[in-house]
Structure formats: C-alpha cells, structure tokens
Design goal:
By secondary structure, this protein is an alpha+beta fold. It contains seven helices and seven strands; from the N terminus they run ααβααββαββααββ. 48% of the residues lie in helices and 21% in strands. The protein is globular, with a radius of gyration of 17 Å.
Length: 214
C-alpha cells in the first residue's frame, strides 16, 4: 500500500526535476518546480506518517490550497504525455479551502491516475474542482469503458469493507480517506462516455451539508 501511494506522484516529481534541468534559469519555471517538489515530498512524507501512525491525525495538518490541485496536473503529466491523453482542467477553488490537504490530494491523485489508465492512448480525462454550498466537490471524468457496477457499489459504500478483486488498493484507500473527511465518493456515467467519479467533502463547520451529496 505504501509503495502504491508513493509511486503515483514520483513521475511528477521527476518531471519537476527535468524542468529544473532544462529551464532552471527561468525564475518562474524554477519557482514552480521547487514548489511542486516541496509539496510532493511533503505529501510522500505524510503518506508514510499516516501508515506508521495507523491513520491517526497528522501532526502538522494544513488546509487545502488551490495550488495543491494544480500540483496534481503536473504529477500526472508523464502519464498524460505518454498516453497522448487530452486533459481538461478547471480548478475553480479559492486560494484556501477549509478541508485537510493531505487526504484530498491523495484521493484525487488516485482518481486521476485510475482515469488515465482507463482511457488508454488518446483518451480524454477532465477535472472540475469547486466549492458549492459548504461542500468541496471534485469531479474526474474519463472517456474509458465505464466503471463496473461492483466498483460503483464499492465506492458508494455498498460493497465490501476492504480491498476486493477488481477494485484495487488505491480505490479502497480513496474511499477510506473520503470517509475520514466526513465525505463520500460516488460514481456514475460521464458525458465523456466513460465514468464520472466525484469526491464530496464538507468544509470545516459545514458537516450538515453532506446530506446534499449526490
């Protein structure tokens, strides 16, 4: 599980190193790459801490930043480029959102990586992130073959409580982290032709809003 969660962002971190090697003399490129490396390495550190602490609360929790979501586009860039994926990205989050950064980053990264693998070469993946009525909503769409009914049921917490065949550890961890946020993951058909997976989580102090999750 640790290997899976750490391996996902490593391609993006190596991409940041490549940016430094080729465009390190440009202040904007250098600053962006260093910021990505800093947040990505802190994220890996948090994965290890969370596993070692058996998912106890982090020692240094912080709120989600819009930049955390932007990081994910860079982290999946090697996958997108290698498969020729058409990536659409709409991040409408305010600068800071009152939800824990670490679990949101991990959940959304898992959903993006799964979407990239589902569409294959030349497919389409889209992300939309927003805050609506006290809820963080992040949707990932893909043009793949769609999500099997057993996986949809699993994400809707109608399936097995632990990892099961056809689901994988990544989605199980995503569902678990979403629950720890007081939120949920739901899945259904996408206008892109494949699956739409949505993470919904209440902002701090707005837990009652989860009754509106669909």
């Amino acid at each position: 599980g640790v290997g899976h969660e750490i391996n996902n962002p490593l391609g993006g971190l190596f991409n940041a190193l490549d940016i430094l090697k080729t465009h390190g003399e440009k202040p904007h490129a250098r600053r962006g790459a260093i910021d990505l490396l800093d947040r990505g390495l802190r994220g890996i550190r948090d994965v290890v801490r969370s596993v070692l602490a058996a998912y106890r609360p982090e020692r240094e929790p912080r709120d989600l930043l819009a930049a955390d979501i932007e990081d994910l586009a860079l982290l999946i860039a090697p996958e997108v480029k290698g498969r020729g994926i058409d990536l659409s990205w709409h991040n409408a989050l305010p600068k800071e959102v009152a939800v824990p950064a670490f679990p949101v980053r991990q959940v959304v990264l898992n959903l993006l990586m799964n979407a990239c693998r589902a569409v294959g070469n030349g497919g389409k993946v889209a992300l939309v992130a927003s805050v609506e009525g006290g809820l963080l909503r992040i949707e990932v769409d893909d043009s793949g073959p769609g999500m099997p009914a057993n996986v949809v049921a699993f994400l809707d917490e109608k399936g097995a409580p632990g990892p099961m065949a056809g689901v994988g550890l990544g989605l199980w961890l995503a569902r678990r982290m979403a629950a720890e946020l007081g939120g949920a993951i739901s899945a259904g058909p996408s206008p892109a032709g494949g699956a739409r997976v949505r993470l919904s989580a209440p902002l701090r102090g707005a837990a009652g809003e989860m009754s509106d999750v669909a």
